[in-house]
Amino acid sequence: MISLLITLLMAVVIGAIGSALAPGAMPGGIIGSMIAGFVGAWLGYLLLGSWGPVIGGFAIVPAIIGAALFVFLLGLVAKGLNRTA
C-alpha cells in the first residue's frame, strides 16, 4: 500500500516538474500532473532508458525529461486545435 502511495506521489512530482520546465501549462491540476508523470516516465524510458536514481519505480531524470516533452507536445497539439477552431 505504501509503495502505491509513493508511486502516485512521485508521478505527481515528476509531472509538476515537467510542466514547470516546458512552455505552456498542463491542464487538470494534480490529476493532470499525475498523468503527465506516468506518460513522461514511459516516454522517457522509451527514449532514454533507465539511468539515474530510481524512486518509486521511476528513473527520475528520464521521467522528468519525458514529462517535459509530453507537456510540450500536448501544448503544441492544443495550439493547433485552437487555431483551426
Automatic annotation (TrEMBL):
The chain crosses the membrane at residues 30-48, 55-78. The keyword Transmembrane helix applies. Keywords: Cell membrane, Membrane, Transmembrane, Transmembrane helix. The keyword Membrane applies. It is a multi-pass membrane protein. It comes from the Bacteria. InterPro entries: Transgly_assoc. Its main location: membrane. It is found in: Cell membrane. Belongs to the UPF0410 family. This is GlsB/YeaQ/YmgE family stress response membrane protein. The lineage of its organism: Bacteria, Bacillati, Bacillota, Bacilli, Bacillales.
